[in-house]
């Protein structure tokens, strides 16, 4: 069966005034894959995520299911299943867990899907189910991250973009996030994961791209990158 391409960037360039955040990036994501973009602070990971989702203008090309992103509206991209769980989480702080989750399904008309998916999310993250009526802002960082992922799942993603989900989280919470990958993939969701935590990315990705200063400097499978001297010395503590 041929690979179906979900996302492809070719010679992708993004600048903020004089700052060049992406300098000719090439990458692709096939249906069903978990692809991870790793790299240090300022490498351009969030810029890539924001460009893919139509928030930032660019040069070069980035296509979602063969359509140039610049020609598709942000809302349309969401309706076509590209759902972005941002680094800042963007929760509604004074709304409850349940309300935040239901807002993630704003573009979904099928009410039975919404109820079913709500159940899926509560099964995935039982800590959310224990806190259905709690305001988002009063939750721990880890719980907020689970809520942000849960809300993204409520939008019926086809491509789920997880922008640095582990940022600021304790190792014990990382396990709660980790265990969600399998069930999410079982729903047929393709995942683009941006990460500074290379160990976490190695654990979940099928393929990875190392970004430095807006350029891909290494790409390969986790096995290939684990065996790479540069990755080991610079990102895995030798
Ligand atoms: P981090 O892990 O710290 O979030 P990142 O890999 O996601 O880093 P980006 O946030 O994409 O990196 O930043 C890439 C570069 O673009 C940085 O030099 C940053 O200062 C710059 N940049 C990002 N957003 C803006 C903006 N809105 N205006 C100006 N410069 C920006």
Verbal overview:
- The protein is of the alpha/beta class and 238 residues long.
- It has 11 helices and 10 strands.
- It has helices spanning 45-52, 74-79, 97-103, 111-124, 126-129, 141-154, 171-178, 181-186, 198-204, 222-226, 229-235; strands at 5-16, 19-30, 34-38, 59-64, 67-68, 82-85, 159-163, 190-195, 207-212, 215-220.
- The strands form 2 sheets. A 6-stranded mixed β-sheet has the order 6-7-8-3-9-10, sandwiched between helices.
- The longest helix is centred in the middle third of the chain and has 14 residues, at 111-124.
- Bound molecules: adenosine-5'-triphosphate.
- The site of adenosine-5'-triphosphate has 13 residues, from strand 2 and helix 1.
- Residues 7-238 form the ABC transporter domain.
- InterPro entries: AAA+_ATPase (IPR003593), ABC_transporter-like_ATP-bd (IPR003439), ABC_transporter-like_CS (IPR017871), BCAA_Transport_ATP-bd_LivF (IPR052156), P-loop_NTPase (IPR027417).
- Keywords: Amino-acid transport, ATP-binding, Nucleotide-binding, Transport.
